[in-house]
Amino acid sequence: MDLVKLQRQLVDYRDSLYHECFLDEQFTQLQELQDENNPDFVVEVVSLFFEDSERLLNELTKALEQQSIDFKRVDAHVHQLKGSSSSIGAQRVQKSCIAFRNYCEEQNVEGCLTCLQLVRQEYYLVKSKLEALFKLEQQILSAGGSIPI
Amino acid sequence: MAVNGAVTWLRRAEEIDGYDLSASDSEEVHVLAVDDSLVDRKVIERLLKITSCKVTAVDSGRRALQFLGLDEEKEANGFDGLKVDLIITDYCMPGMTGYELLKKVKESSAFREIPVVIMSSENVIARIDRCLEEGAEDFIVKPVKLSDVKRIIDYMTTDFREGEERRRGINKRKLRD
Description:
The complex is a heterodimer.
Chain A: H1 3-19, H2 25-32, H3 41-65, H4 71-88, H5 91-106, H6 109-142
Helix pairs in contact in A: 1-6, 3-4, 3-6, 4-5, 5-6
Chain B: H1 2-15, H2 21-26, E1 29-34, H3 38-50, E2 53-58, H4 61-68, E3 86-90, H5 98-107, E4 116-120, H6 125-133, E5 138-141, H7 146-176
Parallel strand pairs in B: 1-2, 1-3, 3-4, 4-5
Helix pairs in contact in B: 1-7, 4-5
């Protein structure tokens, strides 16, 4: 595997994620917090985000299936998801949560269900993109190279 | 806000025995971080460690009070050796909000001197004002960045160091007499 080619691929891929707003500057901030003593920091935080998000998406699905929907509860979950996505720089997920919260406030079931679908979509998209990014990073490290900034 | 901070740190410096200054100087700032979000706790912990702080991260206002030994229902859990120099708390938390935690800390004679910083994803002026009025040292809008944490720790440790130096100056004069 051509190391230089891999590194080039990573830079281009990562740039595209920012360009398409999957990631924002908060993700860059997280990368800056990583060093030789904490080489897995970003992967660890993102893994926590994955776990947390999937839990919240499950909770949201359940909450919206209820006969009598507790919109405060739904909103609380969306608020959490908005917060954690913001903290890791998952901009599109964060933005989709904003619309969701508006529908919660209006107690609009259809709106909420549509938003849940959208949020779930955005989440799985960014998840697969981040996993692809981490895979590229691993390939570079395994080839003895360093990850370009 | 700045005046309050300076007074707080000066007062603490005067309480320390004059000949123990070198020990206190090398002590890290111990921060109690409060946030119900696991992701945010992980991030704030790293931000604080990078700024050379000792960190205790808890997931609720209730646990924060327990850690401080302020919870009426539970005894202090044996951490009373570790003094808390700063509390940094999320605003929106289930159960006790960061605002309620702030109030409880400021109402306590033992802990009201500890600076409290509030973090919130919502940049609402009324909320910020309310927190500052209740005695919060500062307010950070999430997502929290390294520059936010550095600003707060720098400001705190500068005041502390200045207080210490003033104290040392007083001691030197006493020795010569």
